Amino acid sequence: MPELPDVELARRRLQDWMLGATIVSAKSADRRILRPHPPSILKRSLLGRSVRAVERRGKWLRLRLDDGRNVYSHLGMTGRWLRREPDAPREQAERVRIDLVRDDWPPISVRYVDPRRFGRLVVTGKSFPEWEALGPDPLIDGIRLRPLAQALASTRRTVKEALMDQSLLAGVGNIVATEALWYGRIDPRSTGQALSYPDVKRIARGLRTAIRKELADLEASYPEELPDAFRVYGRAGEPCPRCRSPLSRIVLGGRSTTYCGRCQERRRARGGRRRRA
Ligand SMILES: [Zn+2]
């Protein structure tokens, strides 16, 4: 499932392909991906428009058009934007097609492919609640320790689940959270309120490392999709890259989580108020 690094890479590609270009054709027949609008909104709103900016916040992309309208794109579980020649055949699972021209380039065709159709494409001139609700983005805003520590201190959820809350930090998903907690040596089952300030610092550093490393790996393998080079994600049963102890797998908040029971320390909140005898 695409997370911040994947979506940031998509943003960079879309910016290369679309910035300053004029849309000469926009087609889709997919009601589910374009909800709540009918697919006809695409042609009606995009034709003749040019793309002023390609932005990202968390896992959402935003194309800013020259008439002030925006196109919001979420990749869902299996969404990808691809660049093709205008005469290239339709892709398998192609849901949206946007053709563009730009002075200095031959015409191009940008295709949105999404086999499972959990992605979204929303064209609107109004504010978009899903975008507005997003918390700070680790790449754009940085990770500010004090607000993060405060938010974690006030939750009984596990730190793993809290980190995946998009209103706390935008763009962190299962992979980034799993990797960051391994880098930070914190057990994913620790509750938010059990963490000390130094723990939060370690987690923040882990988040930066996990995001930077995955972005670098994705850039290096593009446009191929090389096997993932995660340290612990998806590697249950394999030796921990740090201490060689076998990695464990549990489910937290319905999501599979891999961790090292030996070198990731578990923090426990003190139960209730204790009375002095
Ligand atoms: Zn270990």
pLDDT < 50 runs, ≥5 residues: 272-277
What proportion of the residues form beta strands (DSSP E)?
A: 15-25%
Q: Helicity range of the residues?
A: 25-40%
Q: How many β strands by DSSP?
A: 10
The overall pLDDT, averaged over residues, is 94
Biggest sheet character: 4 strands, antiparallel
- The Cα radius of gyration reads 21 Å
Q: What string, H for helix and E for strand, traces the elements in order?
A: HEHHEEEEEEEHHHHHEE
- From the helix content, strand content and strand pairing, which structural class follows? alpha+beta
Number of separate helices: 8
Hetero groups in this structure are: zinc ion
Silhouette = elongated
Distance between the termini: 52 Å
User: Major sheet: order of its strands?
Assistant: 1-6-7-5
Which descriptors apply to this entry?
29% helix, 23% strand, 8 helices, four-stranded antiparallel sheet, 277 residues, binds zinc ion, alpha+beta, 10 strands
